[in-house]
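[job 4417] fold queue: 2 targets
>>> target A
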Amino acid sequence: MRKRDLFIILAVLTAGLLLGLSLMFDNVIPTGAWGLSYQVQGQPPQGPASAAQLAKYDAVYLGNTEEKVIYLTFDAGYENGCTARILDTLKKHNVPAAFFLVGNYLEKNPDLVRRMVDEGHIVGNHTMHHPDMSKISNRSAFEKELSDLEVLFTEITGKTMSKYYRPPQGNYSEENLKMAKELGYKTIFWSLAYVDWNNDRQPTADHAYSKLIPRIHNGAVVLLHSTSATNAEVLDGILTKWEALGYRFASLDELFAS
């Protein structure tokens, strides 16, 4: 065999190998914390996993990017007096939201939980104890974190909990996503958030506007924390701004109905 022919064969084999490795790793969802890269203002950001990769496990971070629609979600590990004002604002704007709650919240604030349900909001599963779920590989332990919260929710509201799950701190693994799907859950990440969770260093109203208005985009799944005094203060104005930009608000049920 001539050297030139051998070189061509080796080049083809190498290209095939590189393509195969690329496809293999493109389909691997990395373990870690959910994060976002905002590359173009007003356009959906990139996450560590693509929408197509997440869809295999009934997981999402983004809704319909062809429509000016926003899916509003809140996380809460405890209550500090801000949620009632947030609920008042949501009611004023007739905006549905999803509240991802932990066991401690349900135990200490049953009246607020019932109000969320009565006013048409979704209460999602943020686990019973808010652990790093990416470190839980045992199926029974993973399931218990979700099922214990389901039981508590039913005891408080008399209703069955919606099968929406948000990993605490956004920590996840592909195996977690698989287990959640097998348990009938849809995993909800997000495409818009800002640092609003630190009560010792709450952002100013101007900072909140500077992050939430320019970065809004079609199909945005917005994560806010209902423990944020800033969010309670600015939510009315933020919703008004988004409405003026032509956005409407939809529930997670609609996101998965399409």
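>>> target B
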Amino acid sequence: MNSAIEAWREQVLAFDRDMEEIRGAGQEHGRKRPVFASEPLDPYRTGDQALNALYEVVGNGAEVLDVGGGAGRFALSLATRAKHVTVVDPSAESLDLLRSRIEEFGFGNVAAVHERWEDAEVPRADVTFCSLVLHHVLEAVPFVRKLEECARDRVAVLEMVETPGSLAVPFYERVYGMSPTPLPGVPKLMNLLWAMDIFPDVTMLSPEIPVLDADRNSALEKLRRMLAVEEDSEADERLRAASDELLEETDEGLTVQGVKMWRQAIITWKPTHNGSRSETPSH
């Protein structure tokens, strides 16, 4: 196997092993990875630089597949311009929230598919897109190939130079005595794509202060979910002490001492598949 592909797998496996050790026997929340629905965002917002960069990729009237799109952070905004957006996500909780937002805002051109991307059977779209998803995927090669197969015109991936879990690292160390191996970010993703003979365009976005939440109570609740900490437990006492020490106020909201600026990239390429393939890819 190509060394870049194997390095990707080993890093994701190392993260999984570390999370199993951190959560450990007797932990009530034994998930390998923290998963929770994204916070509500205004579909018509104008100050989101990642969204504005995506608008350059997704033209008016395009059909979009948003893979791992969850509760619609980008899907609903894209739907204000696209002909149709289909969100494919394995989280029932996130898709329930997406459906409620579809109803709230009156979108008639957004659909939800409750499946893992690897198992989903969906028609092709002009653009396939995934945001902050790939760094969790162990078998990234078939995942990416399916993104290509389902895209008529372009594949778009939003990823971070350092994965979002960097905000939680200092808290893992104080609550559990260790932090997980970081998940792969843009550098490893580029190596993976090159190993697949994919040579994409990369647009780096301006660095941003990583914000955990607007106030301390909300930030603490988010940290509990990220670290699978039960409220009023011994672990929660350590988490509270760590939050008192590490949380810092900024004009944008609460950040964490010592955490680097967030740097995101939009990675895009045109698929090279044979255009004679059937409209719904086989698996």
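[job 4417] complete. Note on B: Confidence is low (pLDDT under 50) at residues 25-36, 274-278.
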